[in-house]
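This section describes the prediction task in plain terms. A model, or a person checking by hand, is given the sequence of a single protein chain and must write out its three-dimensional structure as a string of tokens. No templates, partner chains or ligands are provided. The sample shown here is typical of the held-out split.
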Amino acid sequence: MLGGGFGNIFKIPELKKRILYTLGLLIVYRIGVHVPTPGIDAVALASFFAQAKGTLLGLFDMFSGGALERLSVFALGIMPYISASIILQLLTVTIPHLERLSKEGEQGRKKITQYTRYGTILLSIIQGFGISIGLEQMTSPGGAPVVIFPGWAFRLMTVMTLTAGTAFIMWLGEQITERGIGNGISLIIFAGIVARMPTATGNTFRLLSTGEMGLFVVLILVVLMILVIAFIIYMEQGQRRISVQYAKRVVGRKMYGGQSTHLPLKVNTSGVIPPIFASSIIMFPATLASFIAVPWMQRVASAMRPGNIAYEALYVGFIFFFCYFYTAITFNPADVAENMKKQGGYIPGIRPGKRTADYIDRVLTRITLGGAIYVSAVCVLPSVLMTKFNVPFYFGGTALLIVVGVAIDTIQQIESHMLTRHYEGFLKKGGARVKGRF
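The expected answer:
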């Protein structure tokens, strides 16, 4: 790191201000997680969620940082925004108007962002109404209703409260991205996941003290955690670099081009989207079974729980499908090859145009296979640890991918700010010396 590493972070006023601003807004978010929605019996709700682990509710609760389990004003979390963003990305490929907007630069991106906000509010209203209806049907294991006074007044109040909470979280994320450090939406999810780690650590020590988990097993888990995190960091930064050569061209009396560069293709192009989609689809039957007491649905739900062979096989299959599907809609080899051809670039030994597009597509298909295997291995890890080693928390999976990925991106942004500051100081000093000579 420049100038002594991260010890110099708080010596840079602008970077210090951005980091403190980010921490302040994340604290506001965590406070909001504990503000309850009116009209709910908290004890009955907690008893219900104790039986909802491994369902879609448990997945959403992870992304909301525990807000759904408490049914706080932030119960919907940032998931409606993520869903709206993914839907807009999919529509951009199929709707010509959105495709044109995506290619219009900053103004087009602002318009798509505005559409994403509208979609977030719409999805929040729909999900908030669905949650209010579901809450009225929920009862604790003892038979106590979760909603104290059911009816339209409760439903409308819940919809308005949860929608306003999601809109506020969306605003917090945008403020962090603009004035803080890192990606605001990702950091909010990161904060929610990390906030639950002390509880998981406490459960581990409790099992250790009662003798339910041996010291040797705990040591093995610690070593395994370090290895898995190192493996994720290695894979998330993994790239397949395709060499690109630019031809020399003469403009007036000057010659341009002739340099060599590379086209970086990430091993995990799709990020955490595949496991999120796969979990949502597979856990849907288990979630419905929580509300509907139908025998055949209960049997399907029990088969679709983590740890069962059917669940793990479908989970891996869906991850592979979405890895290839999401990569295909976000990375177009034909467009890359066309842009490369316009700029006078070519891959050595490959003809420009369609041959280049086919070559890039073939390479991308092969590395996506490796990325899908890597994501599947990390996501199946929690089930193995919980069934074989009696681990009292989910280590691995989507949560760990998000935590490590966001941490890497944030560190890279901090390094970028420090690098910019370093070069600004260098140029200022250099400018002073040049000025003194004349």
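For orientation: DSSP finds 17 helices and five strands in the chain.
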